[in-house]
TrEMBL record:
SUPFAM superfamilies: UDP-Glycosyltransferase/glycogen phosphorylase (SSF53756). InterPro entries: Glyco_trans_1, Glyco_trans_4-like_N, Glycosyltransferase_grp1. Residues 196-332 form the Glycosyl transferase family domain. The chain crosses the membrane at residues 436-455. This is Glycosyl transferase group 1. Keywords: Glycosyltransferase, Membrane, Transferase, Transmembrane, Transmembrane helix. Pfam families: Glyco_transf_4, Glycos_transf_1. PANTHER family: SULFOQUINOVOSYL TRANSFERASE SQD2. GO terms for molecular function: glycosyltransferase activity. It comes from Mycena maculata.
């Protein structure tokens, strides 16, 4: 890639730091990489208290938290950002997970910058979250909104092959896979800390199962709790589940662990060295989610030398190899009655689990959930009881994680910016000279953007009889 000193990028995102997840971590890495490469950038995201990050000026959009998911907000584009965007005159605009703020921005972009290349990213499975949080009739509608907004981009970036397949099936086009990365200096087996394990109450022969990420319904953590309760008492007495992260299910999981006689630690949100040492000091990574687009914490656990006990599901299957770097459960096969062992190879025709395909199987009240929980317990038991297997799979996972440097991820995004520039010829933007006139124009554009976004959502979100039947 040639000199990038003259490149200017504007990024509009529905989420950013201090919220920590795979999307915000990736975006922070991108901003640092852009700064290191001499690329100028500005960012519009939710109000965060930050005005700058890695040399990138940040504009906060005021918003209201979603009652069902307080970590996400309904944000509104500020007129000051429109003014700054005109003065900045970007070469490329990047919309990340556009659903509300991104739709407003798209309207303003098409009015003010019709010739500027647009790149989009789909990093979060928002349609699935609608179902998880009790609004199943919105799922198909959100897919339609997402497909429509992303259709304006020259390219749509996704973090994994399984997510690319899902989006292609939903009608998305011009998809590029741009996976994520991990810093080997942060996440490393060398940071294993025996003093920390003693503070957790572990003896030398005890096992720590790590569960990291948002403690929320979409993570399917009840499967981990149910499976752990099915372990024999002799094994269960030597196991501690270490939960890293927070979320609305924390009180419920605490209660379940107490009533099921499961040893568990809830450490809350950790950052920096405390987080890295916690990962390295565990023994097994549990990944029971089937709504991941990538699995950032899974990759970080592999970089820390941990074997993974997970599901043969989207996101996880792109990182973890069954019998190689961990053990994966085919939940569709788990609903059958044929003989099964955790160390058997997966069926060559195994179907990757998605929310659409296995949500009913995972309902705690269903018979299939009990079968799946017993089989997942078998995966955990095999890893718990076999130190050599854990070491072998952990070492193999570490080698895989080394193939995911952040520079590869961020360079692919930069390459996409340059390719988008080559596909579009843009004319220089000419700004108005009158400050008062510009203020009214920006206010008008913001009002129109919010109106169009609201109208678009209403037109897509009014449920049909088919939606209500979901």
């Amino acid at each position: 890639m040639g000199s990038l000193d003259a490149l200017k990028v504007a990024i509009i995102t529905e989420n950013f730091l201090p919220k920590v997840d795979g999307v915000t971590v990736t975006l922070a890495q991108l901003l640092e990489h852009l700064s290191a490469r001499g690329v100028k950038a500005i960012l519009l995201g939710p109000v965060s208290g930050m005005n700058e990050y890695a040399g990138c000026r940040i504009f906060g959009a005021f918003g209201f938290p979603l009652p069902a998911y307080p970590g996400l907000k309904i944000n509104f584009i500020p007129p000051s950002f429109i003014r700054e965007l005109q003065e900045f005159d970007p070469d490329v605009i990047h919309l990340i997970d556009p659903i509300w703020l991104g739709v407003q921005a798209l309207t303003a972009i098409k009015i003010l910058f019709p010739n500027i290349p647009l790149v989009t990213s789909q990093d979060t499975n928002l349609p699935t979250y609608a179902t998880v949080f009790g609004f199943p009739y919105f799922r198909n509608r959100i897919w339609k909104i997402s497909s429509y907004v992303h259709s304006f981009g020259q390219f749509t970036l996704v973090p994994s092959p399984s997510t690319a397949s899902l989006l292609k099936a939903k009608g998305f086009v011009n998809i590029r896979i741009c996976d994520r990365g991990v810093n080997p200096e942060w996440f490393s087996p060398a940071l294993r800390n025996h003093a920390l394990r003693r503070r957790w109450g572990l003896n030398s022969d005890d096992i720590a199962i790590l569960s990291a990420g948002r403690v929320s319904p979409e993570k399917n953590l009840q499967l981990l709790i149910e499976s752990s309760s099915l372990l024999s008492k002799d094994i269960r007495d030597h196991v501690v589940i270490v939960f890293v992260g927070d979320g609305p299910l924390t009180p419920r999981l605490r209660e379940l662990c107490t009533t099921r006689d499961i040893r568990a630690l809830f450490l809350g949100q950790l950052t920096g060295e405390a987080l890295w040492k916690t990962f390295a000091s565990a023994d097994i990574m549990s990944s029971p989610s089937f709504t991941e687009t990538f699995g950032q914490v899974t990759l970080e656990a592999m970089a820390s030398g941990l074997p993974v006990a997970g599901l043969y599901a989207e996101g996880t299957v792109d990182l973890v190899t069954h019998l190689g770097t961990g053990l994966l459960l085919d939940v569709h096969a788990g609903d059958k009655t044929h003989p099964w062992k955790p160390y058997w190879p997966l069926d060559v025709n195994a179907q990757i689990a998605t929310y659409d395909s296995c949500a009913d199987l995972m309902r705690p009240s269903s018979t299939s959930f009990q079968v799946i929980a017993r089989q997942y317990a078998s995966l955990l038991e095999l890893l718990i009881s076999d130190h050599a297997l854990r070491a072998e799979m952990g070492a193999a996972g570490l080698l895989v994680a080394q193939e995911y440097p952040w520079e590869r991820c961020t360079d692919r995004i930069l390459s996409t910016y340059m390719d988008a520039l080559r596909t579009r010829t843009r004319a220089p933007h000419v700004a108005s000279n009158s400050g008062l006139l510009r203020f009214f124009i920006h206010a008008l554009i913001v009002g129109l953007s919010i109106f169009v976004a609201a109208l678009s959502h209403l037109s897509y979100m009014i449920p049909t009889l088919t939606d209500l039947a979901c």
